[in-house]
Amino acid sequence: MMRVIRNTVGNIDPGGKATRTSTVAVGNFDGVHRGHMALINRCKEKSAAGDSIAVVTFEPLPQTFFRPELAPARLSTVHQKLSFLEAAGVDLVWLMRFGKALASLTAREFVEQALVSDMGGKCIVIGEDFRFGRGREGNAAMLREFGAQMGFTVETVAAVECAGQRISSSGIREKLAAGDFEAAAEWLGRSFTMEGRVVRGAKLGRKLGYPTANMRVRARPSPLHGVFAVFARQVGQPWLPAVSNLGRRPAVGGRETLLEVHFFDFDKDLYGQRLEVQFVAKLRDELDFESLDDLIAQMKRDEAQARSYLAQTTMPE
């Protein structure tokens, strides 16, 4: 089972210091896409028998700490990120709390305190454009210099490309925003999904003839807004066709961003259950309506369109 450490630099518990022969990949890992997988695979190639495969990643994302008003949309919640990393064969993840203390460390201090003292990594794996330390002063060349002085090796991994384009989290966000789920899946290495636990709502959907399972959006800001044809399921259960709305629901005066899922031909109590939603096609943006009758008429059109899309789409396994 993968071990997770949630702490900041210099406060890792004694159990973490036992990973003295770790191969360590460092990065944001938002979405754990094919570029991130290349780092993990390099760790596996360079590790010896008995070594731990470790990942050092940051929460919140550094961009969110420095410019919260320009925070990038999240491709994964922390829960999803950890699930993806465990599935990739990672043994240890350090969710490093990114705050003022970490941001103030020089490049050398970050390496000495986090990668050497706390993690004890013997091989550090980074993307070729990775920057670290106060003011982003550290780069791959500097890390190699530190490695020669402190006794670890450095592996840099070139960007993974798809059709001549560099795979990146920002590029995936752009594809999702444009509703190009097929291209986003190709870059991610899997279909884009969101998940969460079903919470109680105002039950307005049921009154309108469209009962929904409602989930709070934990990956904020969300990379998606609007109405979508989706497959959804309780985690570990079979997938089912559905239509969903992701947003604030202006037509009914909503304020909180919710992911609402209306399953076709299905009516069970899902409160408290964890759902996973796979996006297939964007149907439209959120709209306001003059009356509830107009809203219901549009919901019927959305259902018909979603059923048509999903009938032509292979159900995920």
Alpha-carbon distance between the termini? 24 Å
Radius of gyration: 22 Å
Principal-axis shape: elongated
Count of strand segments: 14
Number of discrete helical segments: 10
The chain-level structural class is alpha/beta
CATH arch. level architecture of the largest domain: 3-Layer(aba) Sandwich
As for the number of domains, it is: 2
Q: What is the N-to-C succession of helices and strands?
A: EEHEHHEHHEHEEEHHEHEEEEEH
Strand content: 25-35%
Overall pLDDT: 90
Strand order of the largest sheet: 1-4-3-2-5-6
Fill in the CATH topology of the largest domain: Rossmann fold
| Helix residue percentage | 25-40%
In CATH, the homologous superfamily of the largest domain goes by the name: HUPs
Reading off the top of the CATH hierarchy, the class of the largest domain is best stated as: Alpha Beta
Low-confidence stretches: 14-19
Please give the largest β-sheet.
6 strands, parallel
